[in-house]
Amino acid sequence: xxxxxxxPTAARAVSSLLMAGLAWIASEMIRPLMPEATSFGIFNYxxxxxxxxxxxxxxxxxxxxxxxxxxxxxxxxxAALVFWAVFLQSLYKMLDMAMDRRFDGLMEGLTNxxxxxxxxxxxxxxxxxxxxxxxxGLLIGLIGEWVSRRWS
Length: 152
What we know:
Blueprint: H1 10-30, H2 43-59, H3 67-99, H4 106-124, H5 127-150
Helix pairs in contact: 1-2, 1-5, 2-3, 3-4, 3-5
């Protein structure tokens, strides 16, 4: 891996910002899908921070190698964002439950992260949300590739 792979580029910045916008929109679409008593706190901000990282590290790193690779990079960035967001939100929920002493041991708490994650993924299996994420990933990949070609 060349030393320049971590250098800032316009394509990385644009894909990162577009991914953050997509994360905010998706987070707002998730709110009505959750149970009514759910306290969201900084839910949107955590997802936007993850999106900035995924846009920079996953999508932006793979731009500049062709249109199909750009589309693939955008979809991969969205998939990474969904994975890390579900994992982090599940971890937070498990820690909240652990503070209420709902687990008997460490392993029960750790396995519960995955049970919570599966529950969250079932909630996320919503047609319009999936369509927005897929379309957003496609657009981010195409726009990022265009920016890479335009300003490189």
